[in-house]
Specification:
473 residues, alpha+beta, Nucleotidyltransferase, domain 5, 6-stranded mixed β-sheet, 5-stranded mixed β-sheet, 16 helices, 21 strands, ATPase_NBD, carbohydrate metabolism
Length: 473
Amino acid sequence: MYIGVDVGTSITKAVAFDETGAQVDSESVQTKLMHPAPGQTEQDVDEVLRSVTTVLNELVARVGQPEFAAITGQGDGLWLTDAEGRPSRAAVSWMDGRAGETVRSWTADGVEEALFRINGNIQFPGSPAAIMSYLDRHEPEALDRAATAGYCKDVVLQHLTGVRATDASDTTMPFGDLHGGYSAEALALTGLGHRADLLAPIHPRQPVGELRLPDTGLAKGTPIVSGPYDLPACAHGSGVVEPGDGMVIIGTTLACQVITDAPDTSGRPAGLTLATGVPGKWLRAMPAMVGTASLDWVLRTVGATTSAVPALLAESPAGANGVAVLPYFSPSGERAPFVDPGARGQITGLTLRTTHADLVRAVCEGIAYAARHCLDAAGLTGSLAVAGGGARSPEWLQIFADVLDRPLRLPRCPEVGARGVVVNAFGALGLEHDAAAWTGSERIVEPGRGVERHREGYRRYLEHLEAARPLWS
């Protein structure tokens, strides 16, 4: 039996799998986001670490001791810890917007493009380099106190094992060089060369340690494997391994990604290029800021809950009776397939006859159009897997299938991040497993009658986007 832990933005999950890849049991606990000022989003690191020990204790009490535990988690943001791995400041979330002006200045000065040419990654307000640059100017004492400026999963690893390390999935962005190391040029471009000692050592495969922390439920000495972070972990867990194959995670954000065997740092800067942990393969990722958070906002506005979505979608036809949504509701703007901290949402086509159902359908369609925009930019040519909380809605999945005009492959179970980090840990520990059995599909959703209507809707979505850009400045 094996345990995968996925430390998300608001939920920490531990999932137990047997030797066939079947999910045995799971445990989850919610964590809070803090908003100390407008546009700022942080997390209490101690609370996040407690959430990990809580889910491990509860799960192990029911299922027994695992062969190992593997850790994945949210990417980006900035997690500062001291030499003992204790938090030296609240974690700044990837959702944070305080570094928006930093990103705008990097774009204007050519830094953004120069960084993209090094490692194929754009910067956005919640990226580690932007946050670290902001703190270096406005809160330098926080960096002075820290021994490590790391990532969520790495903080958990050090807490459990004492190992200070990271892997190439997180470090590809922002300071990576696409060859498994840090780029001195990238550090210099961001003005952070003097903070290089805060970057943790990169392990070429995945960091591995032995459990030393008591009160986790796990036996002392249990192997703990860290990484990759959630985007590559979900790709592993969904069986996305061949160049051209992709996946979309319909979560708080809309994470679209495609496997490539040749990273491309030419063209217009857009998206991320992430190491997968498999030599010679990268993920061309377009993690848009839109997602279920945009739908949740509309549902709250109309006084409905997620349980009402199927009925509301049934009440409004494809095209939402002329209502259209640009779903850029994040206060930090957008990061894929374009970067604009000033990007904002719009709802058009409203009349006195517009219903709540029209609004809900329009935002569901708008998010699906954003997914197509991202996947087109990422170079999707093969099969497409779909995961995330939004994938639990058959009605919304049908909209995605129609907008994308291709079959959607649903992986074996919904916890693909935890599954993927366990699959990756087999390789890191040199253990055999049946990859096809672990990452097979549960079902396929085929495109339906809405394909033609949504082809026109997507064209109008792109026109709407271009018309809106001048209003964001």
